[in-house]
Fold this protein.
Amino acid sequence: MTICPASAELGIWFRRVDVTDRDNLIPARWDSVHPSPLCTKLFNESGVSVSTIEHVMAGLVGCGIHNAIVEIDGPEVPILDGSAIEFVRGIMQRGVQRLDAAVRVIEVLETVEVTQGDAVARIAPSDMMRIEFHIDFKDEAIGRQSKLINMSNGSFARELSDSRTFCSQADVDSMRSQGLALGGNPGKNAVVFDGADVVSPGGLRHNDEPVRHKMLDAVGDLALAGAPLIGHYTGYRAGHSLTNALLRRLFATPGATRMVCYGPNEAKRLPGFGLHWDEIPSVA
């Protein structure tokens, strides 16, 4: 997978370089998402897809990148260690090209909410992007966790980028009994919990790593707004599909958003602005 620079106002696109018989460009937008239970999956009008895009999208947002073409030679973005840290480190090692253009930003003007059972996703007006998340799991090692982060500047890299996806040992056992995930290593690609125990070697990177990863996912899914989104997102037991439903409701609600242009001073409020290498966590 290669992340290539793009011109101002293009936004973020995926290019399936292994597809040569039809349109292989896929827009990273909320209206290209098709339902998928465990990840975010995009399709274009020619039926070309790319899945598990949420971590690289979060990494792009966290580095302040609003325009890029992500070239990939298969249908799924590499899971790597289950976080966004390798994307962030790779982007910052190569450097970010600043464009001589104002940044188009979507500001939330009205509170919008969607629910599914006891899961809730909400976005409300704010002066900058804020992510708030609440989780409640049966596994004692996870339990109830809550966190709120102001996402301006380098907060994503410092606070969320190294937080890995997670699952229970029962989930792993169930998948393997069905012949799934046989080639993967949950201990390397995800944090595995078993009741009160952390099964994965090395333990947790943060005491509240699960809720941080849920926030990471939300950042990546909200990046599909098509431009930087300024609002206060709250998720309670929310997942990929509910966050996408929230974007669909937001853009279907008259007067709930407006597009504005941010110059250099206003852009300081955006995620990734002024991010420095020494703010990026080191991981084993």
